[in-house]
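Could you help me review a protein record that somebody else here produced? Do not assume that whoever made the record got everything right. The record follows directly below this note.
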Amino acid sequence: MRNFGYQRAASVDQAVKAHAGQQASFVAGGTTLLDLVKLDVMRPERIVDINPLPLKQVERLSDGRLKIGAMVSNADLAWHPTVKQDYAVLSEALLAGASTSLRNKATTGGNVMQRVRCPYFRDGISPCNKREPGSGCSAIGGVNRSVHAVLGTSDHCIASHPSDMCVAMAAIGARILVDGPKGKREIDFLDFHLLPGNSPEKEHALGTDEIITHVVLDAPIAGSKSHYLKLRDRASYQFALASSAVIVATSGGTIQQARIALGGVGTKPWRAKEAEQSLIGQAPTQENFERAARIAFEGAQPQSQNAFKIPLGQQAIVRSLLTVTV
C-alpha cells in the first residue's frame, strides 16, 4: 500500500474543501475503497474521512418521498420500518447483497459509488480501459462469464454494475443530492451512472470534488407490490448473475403501473422502460410477462461465456412479476 494523507471532516463544507486540490477520495464504510487501495488499483494522495458527517437520518418528506442520508448503513436502511413497509424491493435488495458484517459498514452513498468487480479491473496488471484508458479490455475475449454485462456494453468495457441496492432504486425512482464547490444540485438516479461508451473510466455524473449527501426515493406507488430476485451461483455472498427489481400496481384485472430494473446484466443499474410499457393495460399473465421479458433484452449483446444471462435475466423478470401478482 502506498502512503497517503488523512483528514477527518466534521461538515460537508469541510469534506468538500479537504477533497479539493489533489488526488483525494472520500471514505465512509471503506468496503470498496480500501480493497482497491490495497490492490494498488486506486492511489489516492489523501483520504477524507466523512464518518462524522450528520448524514445518518432517514426521514419522510411532506410530499411522501423518503430522504436517506448518504451515511446510513445498508443494514440500517434494510431494516428501517418505513423501508420495510413501503419499499420492500429495496429492503430485499439490500439484504441480498454482501454479508451481514459488510452491510453494517457499507453506506448508501458508498453503495451508489461502488466500483465494478471485473477481475481485469482489479488485478492491476491486465489491460483495462476503465483503470487505464486506451489500454484495451481484457474481458472481451477473456473470462467474461459472471460479472460482465449483456446490456449497455461497448467495445471498450463490458463490466456489469455490481450493486443490488442501486437496482432497486432504479426501479423505485430517485434523485441523488450532491454538494460541491459550486453548491448543491440534484441528479436523476437513472442519469447518475454512465454507460461505458468510449470513456469507461467515467462511471458517474458527479462533478469534481462533489459529494453525495442524500438519496431521495420517489413516493411509493399506491396499491403496488414489489419484489427483488437475485440469481447467483451460490446462495450467499456473491454478486448477481442476473437480478430483477419489479414494482406493479393492478386494478380491475389489469396492470396500471409497472417498474422493472435489472442487475448483473447491465453496465449500469438497468431500467427496462419499454418492457414496462408493454405491460400497461394488460392482464397479469405469464404470457404477457414473458413477452415483457423478451422486450427487456432486445439489443442484448452477449460475450463468449455469458449468453446464458439473457434467458436467466428473462426468467428473473417473469418470476418476480408472478410473485407480486399472484
Q: What stands out?
A: The chain has a mean pLDDT of 97.
